Amino acid sequence: MQIGSSNDSAAVKAQYATSKGLDIRITFHEKYSVNKQGYGNWLKSHYDFHEGMKVLELGCGTGSLWLGEDELISKCEKLVLSDLSEGMLETTKNNLGERENIEYQVADIQNLPFEDSSFDAVIANAMLYHVPDLNKGLKEVRRVLKDGGVFYCSTLGENNFTDKLAEWFRLCGEDFNPNHNFTMQNGAEKLHVAFDDVTPLFYEDSLHITEIEDLVGYLKSLTTFKAVLDLPEKKIKDILSEHVKDGAIDLPKDYGMFICR
Fold first, then answer.
1. pTM for this one?
2. Whether the Cβ atoms of residue 76 and residue 96 lie closer than 8 Å to each other
3. Is residue 98 within 8 Å of 147, Cβ to Cβ?
4. Could you tell me the domains of the chain?
5. What is the DSSP secondary-structure string of 3-65?
6. Which of 50, 54, 70, 186 has its CA 20 to 30 A from that of 167?
């Protein structure tokens, strides 16, 4: 999850070349999210997996979705974990190890290296807003899905904590250009280019942050929040401190997923 971003593939590859920044953001959300079910657990609770399925995940990141999910993995005859970044795939492979039913592959959603009707399910979490030609990417997803297959894709909404932070730091224009290429608010319309049946589901959550230093560290992990990072750290902390109430900073989260058939 990030504040603003470019839909240029080179920029995306640069930001996700290694897992360090992503690990910081994942840890931050795990620590301060009010909904303790966890976003990943919520997503998986909606996956309808059965024995013998062939599953593709696009933009697998560090593979965190599958950690501790041996039972879910074992249901897959084949699980292909793909990402644009070789560095991310290496981290995923280190996290999950070599397994007979898991394949790791560099892949671009706009030109998937798989045959038609190859998968029972395709997963794309928090990555469709990066795709330069989204229509092409979605049609590729539909192409590699079997008839009756399901596409699970998650994304951000347009009323997120990032917008609140931008307001606090008085960012606008080039300093705050949120990526709304694919959101919970506009995603359904975009998905209809390839899918007739699109169901949106919203995840109820917020952030309750008790350590300002952790929020500063989160901001520093983002390459797209440069106007704030150029400020002295004391100034950043001072601005954030103005919004502490009862020992914590509370921020909204606007996340969800679409289930497409």
1. 0.84
2. no
3. no
4. 9-159+178-208+254-260 (3.40.50.150)
5. SS----HHHHHHHTSSSHHHHHHHHHHHHHBS-TT-HHHHHHHT----TTEEEEEES-TTSGG
6. 186
